[in-house]
């Protein structure tokens, strides 16, 4: 970023450097001084201070700052201004634009920046080739990324060949898309071109193999890495540890993980998937598949492999990170290890000088959720909220809510919605799905239907409303007295349309309510028909098939032929909901 043009003053160079540093920090919401602020300050001061003349480097840094801030129109305005003023920034300006559009997944923006670069007569440099490859890869255009790298390899100018960054960007894109063999083939091309793969290059191969579910090949890649004189980093070992989380299938891995509890921050980030907190029952017990034979043994073997990887990591002198221990905790959860084992890993995390992060808490909450241990989940949630270094997110609260729902404490789970908002977390589909499932579990069809309608932005009479009601027993009351609690789906972003699982859960609950005489047939049929109409409005063969399936489930369950289970009744809340639902 620093000024490199002829005649660039020290002040302008310092301004560009300050812009660069602020651009890096601008992603921190707590920072009150952004790169755009630095640019505006520099520009205001330059007319009266010749040493602060705004040069091409400063303009380029400002363009990047506006792009990072999500203000592309102002960035493009600066580019046009540079053209009018004939301010030459060289390839760096266009590299910045290409990279920024790539990060945004804007393929047309990438192409527009390339056209502008050609129109300005600016020739690409080594960084340009890397920016193009990475941008196309981020946009999912792997063929264009390969083409861009080949174009760079054909550049005959000395010092303008693609660097290891360009090759690694393509290798990573291929590996993440499941084309690991092609990715490995590019390692040979790199060496032939005189570019040595580095730790990040090999780590992307390991990651691709882990995503493909081939743990043995991932370990082999690690050995190959060492044999070629490249020392693995903590990222490499943490990536390999992911393969030790039992039950990660190739399809799950390609989606970024089965439950997201293995995600991290910074350069080690892994995209988060489902957090496993939503256990909506969309099938009857007999429909639900049993775990595959040997699943417990596989999980135990995976945990042992995780311990071996950790030993290898320590033997190589590579320091652990919080991600290392989070992955080990997740492996313990998948292997069904007792709570003591997980807290042993947590103690090791602290002893190694790390602090638990939100992923640590979420992974442990997931364990308590699976076990239905509401008391432990409550305690851990309070610890998480008391930790000033941790910002609880929706995934963590969803695990807490699921644990409470499984324990039958649905009213308390519903009260967590306000608790989430108080911590700056917006409830999402998993939140409301777990709650709707909880109401269905205890036979409170009326509350479940009210929540469903609120999510559809419909009131009981069909008018627009986001209010829903549930029933709870006062904390100081041991009898059958209940209170009506009104809640609202407050923000538009919380209006997540119910999915197929939520619809099925509600329809099945209606049928079972009618079969057990806790819900009138008329009310049950009204709710089911409303749900079916919502599905039918979506149109298409898939929706028609779902509508037919819902009607079939309703008929089966309402006649007591769906394997009706006894409803879980939790004190006055369950008793009152049953009576109110039948009214």
Automatic annotation (TrEMBL):
Gene3D superfamilies per UniProt: Tetratricopeptide repeat domain
Q: Where is this region: Disordered?
A: 252-300, 553-583
PPR repeat locations: 55-89, 90-124, 163-197, 198-232, 321-356, 357-387, 393-427, 428-462
- List the keywords (alphabetical): Repeat
Query: Low complexity bias located where?
Result: 573-583
Keyword Repeat on this protein?
A: yes
Q: Which NCBIfam families match?
A: PPR
The record's PANTHER family line, in alphabetical order, gives:
OS03G0856100 PROTEIN (PTHR47447), OS12G0638900 PROTEIN (PTHR47447:SF17)
Q: What is this protein called?
A: Pentacotripeptide-repeat region of PRORP domain-containing protein
């Amino acid at each position: 970023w620093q000024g490199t043009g002829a005649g660039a003053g020290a002040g302008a160079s310092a301004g560009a450097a300050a812009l660069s540093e602020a651009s890096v920090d601008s992603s921190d919401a707590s920072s009150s001084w952004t790169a755009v602020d630095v640019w505006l300050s520099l520009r205001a001061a330059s007319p009266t201070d010749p040493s602060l003349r705004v040069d091409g480097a400063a303009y380029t840094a400002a363009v990047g700052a506006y792009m990072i801030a999500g203000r592309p129109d102002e960035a493009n305005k600066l580019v046009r201004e540079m053209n009018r003023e004939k301010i030459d920034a060289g390839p760096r300006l266009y590299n910045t634009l290409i990279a920024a559009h790539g990060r945004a997944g804007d393929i047309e923006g990438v192409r527009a920046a390339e056209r502008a670069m050609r129109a300005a007569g600016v020739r690409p440099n080594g960084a340009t080739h890397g920016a193009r490859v990475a941008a196309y890869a981020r946009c999912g255009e792997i063929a264009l990324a390969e083409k861009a790298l080949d174009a760079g390899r054909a550049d005959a100018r000395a010092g303008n060949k693609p660097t290891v960054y360009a090759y690694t960007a393509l290798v990573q894109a291929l590996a993440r898309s499941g084309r690991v063999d092609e990715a490995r083939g590019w390692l040979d091309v790199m060496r032939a071109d005189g570019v040595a793969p580095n730790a990040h290059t090999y780590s992307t191969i390991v990651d691709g193999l882990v995503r493909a579910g081939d743990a043995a090949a991932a370990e082999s890649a690690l050995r190959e890495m060492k044999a070629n004189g490249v020392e693995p980093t903590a990222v490499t070992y943490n990536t390999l540890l992911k393969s030790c989380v039992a039950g990660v299938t190739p399809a799950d891995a390609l989606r970024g993980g089965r439950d997201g509890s293995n995600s991290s921050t910074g350069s080690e980030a892994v995209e988060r998937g489902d957090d496993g907190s939503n256990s909506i029952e969309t099938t009857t017990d007999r429909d639900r598949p049993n775990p595959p034979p040997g699943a417990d043994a596989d999980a135990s073997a995976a945990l042992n492999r995780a311990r071996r990887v950790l030993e290898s990591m320590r033997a190589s002198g590579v320091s652990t990170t919080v991600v290392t221990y989070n992955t080990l905790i997740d492996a313990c959860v998948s292997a069904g290890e007792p709570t003591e084992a997980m807290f042993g890993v947590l103690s090791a995390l602290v002893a190694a000088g790390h602090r638990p992060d939100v992923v640590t808490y979420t992974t442990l909450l997931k364990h308590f959720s699976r076990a239905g241990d509401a008391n432990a989940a409550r305690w851990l949630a309070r610890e998480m909220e008391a930790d000033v270094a941790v910002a609880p997110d929706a995934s963590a609260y969803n695990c807490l809510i699921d644990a409470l729902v499984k324990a039958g404490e649905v009213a308390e789970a519903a009260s967590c919605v306000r608790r989430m908002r108080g911590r700056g977390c917006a409830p999402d589909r998993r939140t409301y799905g777990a709650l709707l499932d909880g109401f269905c579990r205890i036979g409170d069809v009326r509350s479940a239907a009210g929540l469903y309608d609120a999510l559809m932005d419909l009131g009981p009479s069909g008018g627009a409303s986001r209010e829903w009601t549930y029933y709870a027993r006062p904390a100081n009351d041991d009898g059958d007295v209940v209170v009506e609690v009104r809640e609202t789906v407050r923000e538009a972003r919380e209006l997540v349309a119910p999915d197929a699982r939520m619809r099925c859960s509600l329809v099945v609950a209606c049928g079972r309510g009618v079969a057990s005489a806790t819900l009138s047939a008329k009310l049950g049929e009204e709710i089911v028909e409303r749900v079916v109409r919502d599905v039918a409005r979506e149109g298409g063969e898939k929706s028609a098939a779902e509508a037919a399936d819902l009607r079939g489930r309703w008929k089966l369950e309402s006649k007591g032929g769906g394997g009706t289970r006894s409803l879980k009744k939790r004190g006055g809340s369950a008793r009152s909901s049953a009576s109110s639902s039948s009214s």
